[in-house]
Amino acid sequence: MAERTDSDTTRRSERSRRAIYDSALELVGETGYGKLTIEAIAAHAGVGKQTIYRWWPSKADVLLEAFLDAAGRAADEGGGAALPDTGDIVADLRTVLRATVDEFNDPVFEAPYRALAAEGIANAGLGAEVTAKILEPRLRLFEQRLSAAAEAGQIASDVDPRMAVELIVAPLAQRWLRRTGPLDHIYADTLIDLALRGIGPRRV
Amino acid sequence: MAERTDSDTTRRSERSRRAIYDSALELVGETGYGKLTIEAIAAHAGVGKQTIYRWWPSKADVLLEAFLDAAGRAADEGGGAALPDTGDIVADLRTVLRATVDEFNDPVFEAPYRALAAEGIANAGLGAEVTAKILEPRLRLFEQRLSAAAEAGQIASDVDPRMAVELIVAPLAQRWLRRTGPLDHIYADTLIDLALRGIGPRRV
User: Fold this and answer.
1) CA-CA to A39 of 20 to 30 Å: which in B11, B19, B40, B80?
2) Is A125 inside any structural domain?
3) What is the tens place of the pLDDT at every residue in B83-130?
4) Is residue B110 domain-shared with residue B203, that is, in the same domain?
């Protein structure tokens, strides 16, 4: 009987947690981060606000975990977190960057990440967490794929892998965050081409 | 006499405006954008808050104008807004990107711009203004310099100038805003080198 009760509690907790995550992600898209409150998340999720405060110290923590949970489930559905490796770095980068463009154009994904990025830019403490938990793992996946490409002779071997990654992902991220231009598949393809060839004069 | 009074009023207004700008820039660095208030700016500047509301509808507008005013004065001191053109694009980009690194490492410059960037990322309306008034004019200066370099055969002529600019400035901006790595002159030089050569395999 004790066991049965424990598992009921676990199931209820899990249901509450899921409802809190869903509510945080949905509400931040509707109201923006500034107007998001623990009270509103609790009301929307149908739990008491003490339930939220018992698990998370602030709305930033709720939203960050909710986002990581959703991203983790999306990665599982997509067959894991590693970048594709078909042996063709250009094709693989196109696949990944086009998918990134699609994510940045999807309000369900982009609204909470935009809110976390903006708040992390303003507040160094949260920013360190957002960078460490969302951005850095992503950059490392690119680094690994580019290192494999360097070994295969498809990427210059004398380039710092981290700087190579930033050359590819930062322009796309800037267009998204600062809304400086169109963000579509053609842009993704052109960016990859440009990062590989560079903007210097063409050698003939 | 009427003329004298007008000019006194103008001088007082100008003094108030300057005090409001200085206060906005100073306070945002101390308290962050979220806790910045018109009341605090007014108290710090020694003016009534109605004086501020008469000139600007919101704290975002005060801060944006204060930043643009400071940036404009800095550009005047530096001999104008155009990028240097010594005829050597690599040397000129190094000069400009090193100066940008110095600005991003200077709390007096970077605190208000970081606050405006973060708030603009979260709020599309302010973001459009920040991008149009701060970021876009800067990108256009780079575009002009790169176009001159393309004509001189120092930059590939088949590259979209806007994408070329983003390849250079976005990685630096990302390091600054997301705090993903060191931001120093060596980084600036390496970034320029990488953007010019690309990360693709070296042709021999």
Assistant:
1) B40
2) yes
3) 999 999 999 999 999 999 999 999 989 999 999 999 999 989 999 999
4) yes
Residue A130 lies in a domain: yes
Cβ distance of A118 and B114 shorter than 8 Å: no
**What is the domain range of residue B37?**
1-58
Per the structure, the count of domains in chain A is 2
In this predicted structure, the answer to whether residue A197 has a pLDDT above a threshold of 50 is: yes
Tell me, yes or no, whether B145 and B198 share the same domain.
yes
Does the pLDDT value for residue A2 go beyond 70?
Answer: no
Q: Band of the pLDDT at B26, cuts 50, 70, 90?
A: very high
Q: Are residues B186 and B95 part of one domain?
A: yes
- Mark whether B48 and B121 lie in a shared domain: no
Nearest-5° Cα angle at A158, A153 to A161: 85
Judge whether B201 is closer than 8 Å to chain A, CB to CB: yes
- Average pLDDT of span A183-195: 97
Assess whether B128 and B27 both reside in one domain.
no
User: Would you tell me which residues 37-66 of chain A have a C-beta closer than 8 angstroms to some C-beta of chain B?
Assistant: none
**Same-domain status, B137 and B197:** yes
ipTM of model: 0.90
Domain CATH for A42: 1.10.10.60
Kindly state whether residue B66 falls inside one of the protein's structural domains: no
Give the number of beta-carbon pairs within 8 Å between A and B.
166
A118 within domain boundaries: yes
Q: How far apart are the CA of B17 and the nearest CA of chain A, in angstroms?
A: 26
% chain B with pLDDT above 90: 77
Closest alpha carbon within chain B to A168:
B167
B90 lies in the same domain as B22: no
pLDDT, one tens digit per residue, over A95-152 is 999 999 999 999 989 999 999 999 999 989 999 999 999 999 999 999 999 999 999 9
Which of B69-72's residues contact partners 24+ apart within 8 Å by CB, and which partners? B69/B21, B70/B21, B70/B25, B70/B109, B70/B112, B71/B134
Considering only CB atoms, B122 lies closest to which of A34, A131, A199, namely: A34
Pure H helices in chain A: 2-31, 38-45, 49-55, 59-77, 89-104, 107-122, 124-130, 136-151, 161-178, 185-197
